[in-house]
Amino acid sequence: MGAIQLSQSPDGAPIFSVTARTPTNIAVIKYWGKRDEALILPLNSSLSVTLDPNDLAATTTVAISPAFEEDKLWLNGKEVSISDSVRYQNCLRAVRERAQGIEAGGEKASQEQLRSWRIHVASRNNFPTAAGLASSAAGFACLVFSLAQLLGVTEERPGDLSAIARLGSGSACRSLYGGFVRWNMGQASDGHDSIAEQVAGEEHWPDLRVLVAVVNDRQKDTSSTAGMQQSVRTSPLLLHRAKAVVPERMVAMERAIAARDFQAFGALTMADSNQFHATCLDTSPPIFYMNDASRQVIGLVEQWNAQAGEIKAAYTFDAGPNAVLFCLEADRGALLRRLLYHFPPSDSTPLNEYVESAELLKEASVSSADDIRDLPAPEISKEAKPGLQFPGELKYIMSTRVGMGPQVCEKPLEPLLLDARTGFPPVS
Ligand SMILES: Nc1ncnc2c1ncn2[C@@H]1O[C@H](COP(=O)(O)OP(=O)(O)OP(=O)(O)O)[C@@H](O)[C@H]1O
Ligand SMILES: C[C@@](O)(CCOP(=O)(O)OP(=O)(O)O)CC(=O)O
């Protein structure tokens, strides 16, 4: 089966469609602040780890047909108005302008037709939307990737598609690649050199593991976009960070990744997360993305690292309270035990919903709520204060790893995002 599916509307018009899945990414050197709001050009370069799309991804079907009357988008089953959204419009326009032509199932569509026909987009995320888990990154990257596949768009220069995804959301440009990805801030005023580039593939560091401690999946109060605007206007630390700190950190981080040096990687990751949140605090009025549970996670990681005399785990937080934790495979069970000791599930949360991965629970030698109650207090260094316990403060703990970039879905999805005959979401 090819990437492009062909179907027919009831009045015989062709409907061409493509479905693709695109991962989220978590920045270990953060992007925070723009030098150009419209083109989404950042004040500094950034670097991210692409997360396994089996765990955190957007799946999007895009369809084009002369039968459609207007461009439309449905997100997680609900229609979202895009006519006034500059970001969606910019992405659609930029891909459309580069449309080549379609040939599928014996039907053809010319460049002119593709530029005039309307597009339907339906997407869903397999994780909470707008909760600081980079749903916008996966979503815009998936929109641009799937539409480019549909319209036969190829990159003239490597990174061209990432520059289009950047128009949707800055961090989206990094989701066009798997593994470890750098977003070069670029210098050009038109943004053509502000593109993402893979620095190492998803196979590069096989024993690197990621746990996501989901603190709260409510929508947050201050979006990343609004938060960074406030920081650019008011935080003196932000400019210092962009000019004097990030450039050196980018070099050091790439070196740490190339050498699979977890000590350097972990130290830089935590330092950069902390500086990003310090910048938020330096903003007027201050922005607090982390909450008490986030700070407790920081505490337990720092205590473990201090007791071990080396970095066992490293935390990073985006614009929300959820903790993303890196560790090596050999330490993953121990990290989960520490998390479960300090953050046992509430009495009403079944263990297999709290930690979905049976493999991970096995690694931590935990198979029941009783096992969690019986966990001994983790070892800490003599001078540290014993950590407290916060039952029910986490919603769940997700386990993932470094993952691959966008992929076209060759098999039909269940349930379908767009009905093949109508090009609209199926009526349930
Ligand atoms: N699958 C998707 N397809 C298209 N657009 C999406 C998709 N998922 C999210 N978005 C867009 O991204 C917005 C959420 O972005 P927002 O920056 O508020 O949250 P986030 O990306 O989850 O968190 P953060 O970027 O701070 O980590 C949604 O309102 C929607 O406009
Ligand atoms: C804290 C961050 O996650 C901020 C991401 O910001 P967005 O990419 O969501 O912002 P816009 O470009 O305005 O859409 C850090 C990062 O991903 O680098």
From TrEMBL:
Q: What reactions does this protein catalyze? A: (R)-5-diphosphomevalonate + ATP = isopentenyl diphosphate + ADP + phosphate + CO2
Q: Which UniProt keywords apply?
A: ATP-binding, Lipid biosynthesis, Lipid metabolism, Lyase, Nucleotide-binding, Steroid biosynthesis, Steroid metabolism, Sterol biosynthesis, Sterol metabolism
Q: This protein's superkingdom?
A: Eukaryota
Q: Which SUPFAM superfamilies does the record match to this protein? A: GHMP Kinase, C-terminal domain, Ribosomal protein S5 domain 2-like
Taxonomic lineage is: Eukaryota, Viridiplantae, Streptophyta, Klebsormidiophyceae, Klebsormidiales
**Assigned GO CC terms:** cytosol
Q: Which NCBIfam families is this protein grouped with?
A: mevDPdecarb (TIGR01240)
- What EC number(s) does its UniProt record assign? 4.1.1.33
Q: Which Pfam families match?
A: MDD_C (PF18376), MVD-like_N (PF22700)
Q: What is this protein called?
A: Diphosphomevalonate decarboxylase
Assigned protein family = Belongs to the diphosphomevalonate decarboxylase family.
Residue span, Mvd1 C-terminal domain: 210-409
Biological process (GO) annotations held by this record are: isopentenyl diphosphate biosynthetic process, mevalonate pathway; sterol biosynthetic process
Q: Name one GO molecular function term.
A: diphosphomevalonate decarboxylase activity
**Where is the chain membrane-spanning?**
none
Please list the residue ranges annotated as the Diphosphomevalonate decarboxylase-like N-terminal domain: 23-196
Q: What class of enzyme is it?
A: lyase
Its function? Performs the first committed step in the biosynthesis of isoprene-containing compounds such as sterols and terpenoids.
